[in-house]
Amino acid sequence: MKSEVEITGNRLRITRIFDAPRDVVFQYWKSVDKLQQWWGCKETTKVESTVDFRSGGTFTHRMQITGAGECLITGEYVEIVEPERISYRGNFGGNIASVTVEFIAQGDRTKVILTQEGLPNQTIVQIVAQGTTESLDKIDRMLSGQAALAR
Predict the structure, then answer these.
(1) What own/partner pairs with CB < 8 Å and gap ≥ 24 does 124-132 have?
(2) Phi and psi dihedrals of 85, rounded to 5?
(3) Which CATH number fits domain 4-150: 3.60.20.10, 3.40.309.10, 3.30.530.20, 3.40.50.12780?
(4) Residues 40, 61: contact at Cβ < 8 Å?
(5) What phi and psi, each to the nearest 5 degrees, are found at residue 50?
(6) Closest among 96, 89, 119 to 10, alpha carbons compared
(7) Residue 27: closest CA among 149, 143, 145
(8) Strand pairing class (69-81; 85-92)
(9) What pTM does this model have?
(10) Are 10 and 120 in contact (CB under 8 A)?
C-alpha cells in the first residue's frame, strides 16, 4: 500500500498500512540497526545513528544524501508507549517540529499514522512529506523481504 499524505497548513499527516504485526513494525523505529537502513529519502546513501530510546532520550541521524551532502537530524523523545506510540521533537535542519507516530494493530497488519506539526512553511512541509514517504517505502520493502525469508 502506498502512503496517504494529508497536508493542512504546516501540519503533515501520513498514513500507511504495513503487512506485518504491530510489534514487528514498532521494532523498525526502535532498533538502531533497522533505523539506519530506512531513515532518509531514497537519495540517502548512508545513515549513522545514535539513539537513546526512552522518554527524555535523544537521537541523532547523520545522513549522506546524493547531491545534497550531509544532513543532520537530531531530536528528543517526549513519550514512548511501546508498541503503540512514539512522540518526539525533531530538529530538521534548524526547523523544530513535533512528531507523533501511532502504531495501530489491524490483525496481522499495522496502520502507522505519522503526524508532524510546526514546520515553518509549505516548501519544507513538501520536502519532509516526500522524504518521509520514501522512508516508509524502504520499511515496506524491508518487511516484504523479511516475510519472504520466513516462508
Answers:
(1) 124/92, 124/95, 125/7, 125/10, 125/12, 126/7, 128/12, 128/92, 128/97, 129/5, 129/7, 129/12, 129/14, 130/41, 131/40, 131/41, 132/3, 132/12, 132/14
(2) -160, 145
(3) 3.30.530.20
(4) yes
(5) -125, 125
(6) 119
(7) 143
(8) antiparallel
(9) 0.92
(10) yes
Mean pLDDT by 10 residues, the chain (151 residues): 90 96 97 94 93 97 90 95 97 89 97 95 89 95 71 41
For residue 22, what are the β-bridge partners? none
Name every residue whose Cβ is closer than 8 Å to that of residue 24 and which is 6 or more positions away in sequence: 110, 143, 146
In single-letter form, the type of residue at position 41 comes to C
Residue 126 Cα to chain centre, angstroms: 15
Spans of all domains in the chain? 4-150
Three-state secondary structure call for residue 119: coil
